[in-house]
Specification:
It is a single chain. By secondary structure, the chain is an all-alpha fold. The protein has six helices and no strands. The longest helix has 28 residues.
């Protein structure tokens, strides 16, 4: 094993053990579960080409929740404090949009209330982990 691959493994281990990273993965999984339920098991490509509003909202829900993980990885690896702050602001805006998607779906799909409740719980758990991570991040910068 080379020194370079040892560093990559160390980086990956630290990243994947971060609570915020784990919560982002769970948030994505729950978003995908809800989207699958609402769209009758459509894949991302089918949602993207669909004309149905529910499919478009579901697609945005999944894509936005999926965007959190790479943003966390980028914040974790960059030394540029302004880039870290930008990505964190972007993640917060994403959370706001996720709440709006939940509101939209909840109003229109009574049968999805259980999934919406699960997703809202995941958003809350993610937000707590994100806040803690953010506070530690800038405390150590």
């Amino acid at each position: 094993m080379s020194i370079h691959s040892s560093r990559n493994n160390s980086y990956n281990n630290r990243l994947t053990h971060l609570e915020v990273y784990k919560k982002a993965i769970e948030l994505f999984k729950t978003s995908r579960l809800l989207a699958t339920y609402i769209t009758d098991n459509k894949d991302i490509g089918s949602m993207n080409t669909s004309k149905q509003k529910s499919d478009r909202y579901s697609l945005q829900l999944v894509m936005d929740s999926m965007s959190l993980v790479p943003d966390i990885a980028e914040v974790h690896t960059t030394f540029d404090v302004s880039m870290k702050r930008y990505k964190i602001r972007r993640m917060k805006k994403t959370l706001t949009r996720l709440h709006k998607y939940c509101d939209y779906i909840e109003k229109r799909y009574e049968h999805a209330k259980d999934y919406i409740h699960l997703l809202r719980q995941e958003i809350i758990a993610y937000r707590k982990a994100h806040t803690s991570w953010e506070n530690n991040l800038f405390k150590n910068s």
